Amino acid sequence: MTEKTEHIATSSNDLNKLRAAVLGANDGIVSTAGIVLGVAGAAASKETILIAGFAGLVAGAISMAAGEYVSVSSQRDSEKAFLTQRRTHISKNPDSITKELVEIYQAKGLSKKTAQLVASELKEKGFLNRELEKESGIDPDDISNPWSATIASALSFTAGAIIPLAAIAFAPDAWRVPVTAFAVLLSLILAGTLSARAGQASKLRAALRIVVWGIGAMVITYAIGHLIGVSL
Q1: Looking at the predicted structure, is the pLDDT value of residue 7 above 50?
Q2: Residue 29, C-beta contacts closer than 8 angstroms, at least 6 positions apart
Q3: Which of 91, 138, 141, 163 is most deeply buried (CB count within 10 A of its CB)?
Q4: DSSP letter assigned to residue 110
């Protein structure tokens, strides 16, 4: 039972990192593509486009990292507060807590006698608190780490942002918009597919969802940039 609980906790933490990485990569691709295509729509020079895109990369990576750190830190504080409250409750009500653990084991299929034996042995060895904390859904050895999510978010945003920047930098001027759009679409499909595979979800649905939003962002920003460029 303990191994299963630890596996669930670890998987939850891994999914937290995966969420940060996927969101970071997606935001890096879409937001930077929006910036460079918006500026390209205004008929700006390649140097101007790259400067704007690089500024967006730096600002976006910092913003994503800060946001992720604040979010996961708040989650970590909540988990610690819950553990403190739980431990206080356990220390004041050891008998009722032992009974609660026996009922949990019985619900998992153990006989009452076996459940009482396991609970008593855990209590004698000082593992009762830890076991009940894990049963509550929080592993005290695997509390959310804000730094891992922060780093994953910043690095994935940067990696995603490099794709439209590289496309703009190396494509001929006459082809920079279609080449960038094509590179962004491929990267979004790949990001959606990988995230769906890691989360064991539908690959087609994930890829389609992320591509539709990406296309919408590129079309809108390019159109706005074009209108501004014409008006100027």
Answers
A1: no
A2: 160, 161, 163, 164, 184, 187, 188, 191, 214
A3: 163
A4: -
Phi, psi of 116 (to 5 degrees): -65, -40
For residue 175, give the H/E element and its range.
none
> What length is written for the chain?
232
Span 173-197, average pLDDT: 83
- Distance in angstroms (rounded) separating the CA atoms of residues 187 and 78: 36
Compute how many other C-beta atoms are within 10 angstroms of the C-beta atom of residue 211. 17
User: 32: which DSSP letter?
Assistant: H
DSSP at 127: -
In this prediction, residues 68-92 reach a mean pLDDT of 79
Instruction: Read off the DSSP letter of residue 133.
Output: H
Angle, vertex CA 12, rays to CA 163 and CA 126, nearest 5: 145
Give the pTM.
0.71
* Three-state DSSP state, 44: coil
In terms of Cα–Cα distance, which of 27, 28, 33 is closest to 49?
33
Residue 101 has phi, psi (to 5 degrees) of -65, -40
> What Rg, from alpha-carbon coordinates, does the chain have?
25
Spell 185-209 as b/e; 16+ CB within 10 A means b: bebbbebbebbbeeeeeeeeebbee
Q: Give the DSSP letter of residue 143.
A: -
